[in-house]
């Protein structure tokens, strides 16, 4: 997200979405760890519910973007425990079905967005030699 912010025009909006996803993943990771979810299941759930995750993390990202850097970080991190509690009670799959139902799109599909494909490719290859 920090590197994306440096790209002209599309960088700042892209970085904001990436920060939204970062905050959401951090909040939901506590729930997933307690449920003993594998990393593959966590990533698949996150990538399938990417619009929900972007919306869930948007308030934290806004709180850290609007004020000056240190003040924003302090506010966002002070509220982080609240986001963990909210994530414990959230169900992205039910929220998605409810939203699609409101728009008359039952059975509609929001495609899986491979958010972690680059990092998976970089870490799944042969290990780098350290000699």
How do you describe this structure in short?
Helices cover 69% and strands 0% of the residues. It has six helices and no strands.
Protein architecture, described:
This protein is mostly helical. 69% of the residues lie in helices and 0% in strands. The protein is globular, with a radius of gyration of 17 Å.
**How many distinct helices?**
6
- Report the principal-axis shape: globular
> What class do helices, strands and sheet pairing give?
mainly alpha
Low-pLDDT windows of residues: none
Distance between the first and last residues' Cα: 31 Å
Q: Helix proportion of residues, in percent?
A: 55-70%
User: Which H/E pattern describes the elements?
Assistant: HHHHHH
Average pLDDT rating: 84
Spatial extent as radius of gyration: 17 Å
The fraction of residues assigned to DSSP E strands is: under 5%
* Number of strand segments: 0
The description of the largest β-sheet is: none
């Amino acid at each position: 997200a920090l590197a994306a912010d440096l790209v002209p025009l599309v960088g700042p909006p892209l970085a904001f979405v990436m920060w939204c996803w970062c905050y959401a993943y951090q909040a939901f990771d506590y729930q997933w760890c307690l449920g003993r979810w594998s990393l593959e299941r966590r990533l698949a759930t996150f990538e399938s519910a990417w619009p929900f995750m972007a919306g869930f993390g948007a308030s934290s990202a806004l709180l850290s973007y609007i004020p000056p850097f240190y003040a924003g970080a302090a506010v966002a991190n002070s509220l982080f425990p609240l986001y963990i509690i909210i994530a414990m009670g959230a169900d992205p799959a039910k929220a998605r079905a409810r939203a699609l139902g409101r728009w008359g799109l039952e059975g509609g599909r929001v495609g899986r967005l491979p958010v972690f494909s680059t990092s998976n490719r970089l870490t799944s290859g042969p290990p780098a030699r350290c000699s």
